[in-house]
Fold:
Amino acid sequence: MKIMKRPNILLTVRVSVVTGTPGVGKTTLGKELAQRTGLTYINIGDLAQEGQLFDGFDDDYQCPVLDEDRVVDELEEKMVDGGVIVDYHGCDFFPERWFHIVFVLRTDNTNLYSRLESRGYTGKKLQDNVQCEIFQTIYEEAMEAYKEDLVHQLPSNKPEDLESNMDRIVEWMDQWIKNNN
Ligand code: DAT
Structure:
């Protein structure tokens, strides 16, 4: 039986790399998308936690530092067959060949501020994350790391955005499957 080829999708954000989970809605979108499409959702933070894939501790942000090489080694086998949604607030250390599309989620600063505050972020961690959104850090990282036409920004401010993002990704995916099988 011929196995259907499916795409790998990267969900990332426009905010900071080192400060932990930044609250733009990747997890929410990634999990719902996995449920709707049957793709496998992988949260890099959880994967690193489970395998203790860390390399030191960041005193400024009070969080462990990801061991990127070990994360890539751990994921390699999962990525070859396709059908994986990867969720992480950074993207330039993943091999470019892994992904068929990259979605960069965007949240307005006021929304992001209150989401992070209600998550218990304060001081430098809160300020830095919101500032990185203003500077478009991750969007620029994604545009440098991947072919520009693979990188798409999606608004993630209100519940209706979640629905329209899902519809858009599913539509893209159906087309990808048709073109590649
Ligand atoms: P992340 O995985 O990027 O850290 P999350 O999925 O945990 O973000 O979402 C952070 C919070 O924002 C959470 O309380 C759910 C809420 N949220 C997610 N997507 C949203 C949307 N499109 N509209 C409103 N709230 C949203």
